[in-house]
Amino acid sequence: MSLIEVNGVSKAFRVSRRSAGIPGMLANLIRPKYEKKQAVNDISFSIEEGEMVGFIGPNGAGKSTTIKMLSGILYPDSGSVRVNGYIPYKQRKSYVGSIGVVFGQKSQLQWDLPVIDSFELLKAIYRVPEDVYQKNLKRFTDMLDMSGFLNQPVRQLSLGQRMRADIVAALLHSPKIVFFDEPTIGVDVVGKETIRNFLCELNEKDGITMLFTTHDMQDIEKTCKRLIIIDQGAKVYDGLLAGIRSAYGTTRQLDVEFSDDCTVAPIEHVEMKELDAPGGRKKRFLFESKEVQIDALMSSLLAAYAIRDLTVSEPEIEGLIRKIYSGEVVR
Amino acid sequence: MRNDTIHLAGVYTKTVMKSWFQYSVDAVLRSLAVFIREAVGIVVIYFSMLKFDTLNGWNIHELMFLFSLLFLTYGILILFFTGMRDFWKTVRDGSFDRFILRPRGLLFQLIFSNADWFAAIGHGGLGIVLFVISAGKLGIIWNAGTVVYYILAVIGGVLIQGAMFVFVAALNIYLLQTDSLVTLFYWDLRKFAGYPISIFHRAIQFCMIYVVPFAFVNYFPSQFLLRKEDMAGYPAVYMYLTPVIGVCMYLAAYGFWRYSIRFYKSSGN
Q1: Cα separation, B220 vs B242, whole angstroms
Q2: What are the extents of the domains in chain B?
Q3: Which residues in chain A are contacts of B5 at CB distance < 8 A?
Q4: B 91-120 near A (Cβ less than 8 A)
Q5: Does A84 touch chain B (CB under 8 A)?
Q6: Which of A85, B11, B64, B255 reaches 20 to 30 Å from A60, CA-CA?
Q7: Where in chain A is the domain with CATH 3.30.70?
């Protein structure tokens, strides 16, 4: 049995639908109209112990709702969730001690107090033994270079510092599983890199199972092997990050810089774009790898024209994800 | 296990105190401001009462005794139930989600992370001042029996009002916004509670006894100690019911809370 098992889970919210203006407001008062918004629709997946999984999707896709069901904040309408042998929303008190949750948008630290005070409070809440607490605190603050601001009030911290403190806050009780909801939001490039390295190291050395949502594809590329993509409440992809390329990224791109201005006759199955003015020196060729052999294309071009430079590129993951979100890729 | 809970309550209290003392001048002024705000109301009544001898048989000191119970219980109340009174805020800003994620009782966390010590000093302090001024002049015989009765009545009064806050907090899960409801049923009705309820219209009396039972917070307990004539209009047993009603209301409200919490919908996404 897997550590995290999600089976056919659905969750809908009732959203009150209001017509505009004062008449609409009054009508709503007398007879409220509700709309059902399906936030999560029949999602299933399972995650093994020690896995690090990226969980992505456009805004409103149902990522946070899923995380909230996994962590026990929300009841699913149907389906079942089982994490670490517990049913999160039913066995809350015994379950939550084994997980950590970071909401990037919502700090759990005491706003007016030094960071260390929040940590002390969490130590008492989670009943962390003194030696374990000291060991974790020292290790994490060293890894994230936090000793400089442990005694500063949270309200004076930069966003990057606050995020690091929040991540440590979720780890002090040595959880087995950690859910991250946008742990790098608003953090600068260096800060993001620090956080990613930290998470990778924890995953590798301590075998902590992690699931995280993000909108930054670099986060995923640098940390996760596996990716789950959801859109409009339904799962659209679940597999290796590398698999995305072979599944969706079959388009290849060949940029050619010719020695002189020229026009190229249309080639079958290849789309040509002018990168300079029409008839200029730089052109881009786009084609499907299964329809056109790249070596054949290149040698035919080389035979016919004088060429100064050639670049072949694979599609970027980010571009592929964008295509999946916008529905360009057939599911 | 018990020890551990007390320890956590202590750490919470220390944290809350520390937060307040980040702005220490404001914190102290807060106690003073609350005290004066409430005391002004009493002063107005005091001078009005100099024009009348009694209000339905109650003199000014007896009225002050009535008020003292109201303020004293409220002072203790907001040490424990501020988190329930302001539950809608906790839900709205998303911090309730965080409580769910911690391996402790939800009510416990709400209570101890919100204890409003400085307002409590303001309200409770006024209650004690009024008690000291009035109690000596009323000829109450303080013996073991009356002292125990008084303590039980205060506890009962706290529980009655605490139950109201817990009940409203549970309702908030369905209605999402309940501060007007609290104003209407708690604060507006509480304004009647400073006076002997016998002076009011029957409908108001009914409300104060059976709907939002403020009468059991201060009127009936005061009657036990003062034995005014207007008590004849009510069953004598009402003088003894405060602790019972407190415990029953609290248990009922707690049950309703436990039942409702499973319908909680997290705010935002």
Answers
A1: 8
A2: 2-263
A3: none
A4: 94-95, 97-98, 100-105
A5: no
A6: A85
A7: 250-314
As a whole number of angstroms, the distance between CA B158 and CA B171 comes to 20
Residue A312, Ramachandran bin (φ over 0: left; ψ between -120 and 50: alpha; else beta): beta
Fold of A4-9+40-246: Rossmann fold (3.40.50)
Helix (H) or strand (E) holding A255: strand A251-258
Q: Give the containing element (helix H, strand E) for A221.
A: helix A217-223
Report how far apart the first and last C-alpha atoms of chain B are (Å, whole number).
Answer: 35
Residues 6+ apart with CB under 8 A from B150: B221, B225
Output DSSP code: residue A185. Answer: T
The pLDDT value recorded for residue B211 is: 92
Parallel/antiparallel/unpaired status of strands A209-213 and A52-56: parallel
DSSP code string of B158-194? HHHHHHHHHHHHHHHHHHS--HHHHIIIIIHHHGGGG
- If one compares A280 and A137, the residue with the highest pLDDT of the two is A137
Q: Between A and B, how many residue pairs show a Cβ–Cβ distance under 8 A?
A: 66
- Whether B194 contacts B66, CB under 8 Å: yes
Cα B269 to Cα A53: distance, rounded to the nearest angstrom: 20
Average pLDDT over residues B55-83: 93
Nearest residue to A223 via CA among A197, A246, A243: A197
Digit-coded pLDDT (tens) for A313-323: 877 777 778 87
Taking residues B46-53, what's their average pLDDT?
84
| Phi, psi of B216, deg, nearest 5 | -85, -10
Look up the ipTM and state it.
0.84
Q: Buried b / exposed e across A91-117, counting CB within 10 Å, b at 16+?
A: ebeebbbbbbbbbbeebbbbebbbbbb
- Asked whether residue A84 carries a pLDDT value surpassing 90, the answer given is yes
What residue ranges of chain A are covered by domains with CATH 3.40.50.300?
Answer: 4-9+40-246
Concatenate the DSSP letters of all residues of B194-217 into one string. GS-GGGS-HHHHHIIIIIS-GGGT
Question: A250-314, which class in CATH?
Answer: alpha beta
Does A112 lie at the interface with B, CB-CB under 8 angstroms? yes
* Interchain contact, A96 vs B22, CB within 8 Å: no
Task: State the pLDDT confidence band at A303, using cuts at 50, 70 and 90.
Answer: confident
How confident is the prediction for chain A on average, in pLDDT? 89
